[in-house]
């Protein structure tokens, strides 16, 4: 078993896709770097932290992007975002079997601020355009940096999300919540709390991700192959179903009498969502959790 979390972006591409099939567009040799970082005296990367290209997955043609968490936490800047948008727009023209986004990002690159925000908004629009064309967009989340900020929103715009137990998905990262609301509200150093509220198990139980896998590259590959035929074109019916899911989750968390000072908030939510023996969830492996909630696993 090879840990997905411990792999670099290009290692994931080499191991996840059919052997030798990845053809990169705008590789590091093109020296396509951020125009902003150099002005700030910040080191750049020749691929601006994301590799894009075409490949085969189980013999089917796919377009793929992999964010490099080791470069600025996978943060999205102008060039980084433009590469993602270009990949998605080319998918509309060439119509691959699917677009895979191997997401690992803390969100917008603060060094590029507005340019990064605009880039993320363009990525979201492009994802929805690809989905509307009937091409599945599959997001894989299992990197050490998680998937936060604008990329967290991008992920939830996709057809299908695959996460590992060690993956994290949220809008605001732990440090951001702590900085804005205080350590008493959310202690970013409490790793158990962070994973209970943004980790793969939690997101799977609440319906925010479609498949939960072990931290194994081949498990991600198998889940990605299974997702290739699961296109969910944007429609009124799909939006209504999503709103119903959110309404049910909100109803499970009453404003009054929720925090009793005894039970963990995440555990209480899992209980309200029908998870038996919810207190045991953090200690379970993926197979045991799926056995505990068979209806969710189906």
TrEMBL record:
Q: What is this protein called?
A: Malonate decarboxylase beta subunit
Where is it found, in Gene Ontology cellular component terms?
A: acetyl-CoA carboxylase complex
Which NCBIfam families does the protein's record reference? malonate_beta, PRK07189.1
Name the InterPro entries for this protein. Answer: AcCoA_carboxyl_beta (IPR034733), Acetyl_CoA_COase_Trfase_b_su (IPR000438), ClpP/crotonase-like_dom_sf (IPR029045), COA_CT_N (IPR011762), Malonate_beta (IPR017556)
Domain (CoA carboxyltransferase N-terminal): residue spans on this chain: 1-236
Query: Which keywords appear in this protein's UniProt record, sorted alphabetically?
Result: Transferase
- GO MF term list: acetyl-CoA carboxylase activity; carboxy-lyase activity; transferase activity
A GO BP entry: carbohydrate metabolic process
One Pfam entry name: Carboxyl_trans
Q: Which domain of life is it from?
A: Bacteria
